[in-house]
Design goal:
heterodimer, A: 110 residues, mainly beta, 6-stranded mixed sheet, 5-stranded antiparallel sheet, 11 strands, 0% helix, B: 114 residues, 7-stranded mixed sheet
Chain lengths: 110, 114
Amino acid sequence: RKEVEQDPGPFNVPEGATVAFNCTYSNSASQSFFWYRQDCRKEPKLLMSVYSSGNEDGRFTAQLNRASQYISLLIRDSKLSDSATYLCVVNYQAGTALIFGKGTTLSVSS
Amino acid sequence: DARVTQTPRDKVTEMGQEVTMRCQPILGHNTVFWYRQTMMQGLELLAYFRNRAPLDDSGMPKDRFSAEMPDATLATLKIQPSEPRDSAVYFCASGDWGKGETQYFGPGTRLLVL
């Protein structure tokens, strides 16, 4: 079983739509959680950290459920510029390697 | 705006040749990671260093891969001999352990072994 699992998609949505991505992780001792964004042929970039209390950054909302080992990302009012691959990322211990899901591809069309 | 730099950006080589990839981490960052990305496996750790000392290279094929940090401003990843299955994008990332968990990725080296 992969340590971090995501639905690969693709998710094809129109502009303005709300879209949700889900992710599960296998190691219950995981300490930190993130969503990274990767554009085509580019490097991954941190989108946001994910906290147990849930957190929001503009149109993006991330949630963590430690009991279910489940992470989510909600994007409201999708923009064309949101088209990218979204990587669910887990860290077992600060300063150590990140564990990546394979990513979920989002395509937003006009 | 500090960035991780990597060279070369693209490399095409023939099977059996030596490949060296270089990374300049963000100045002052004490931790450097090498990741590899393929369509099949996604992003996976190869090795990482803290204060230039190797901490984990369990993801790296030891017989052909080697990673070093000759100094704090340079990390290298070498493949000798290269094989077609090594074709991938190799990313270097750096972070400042103790001052946050964010890892900053370089633009990657796209390697094609024929």
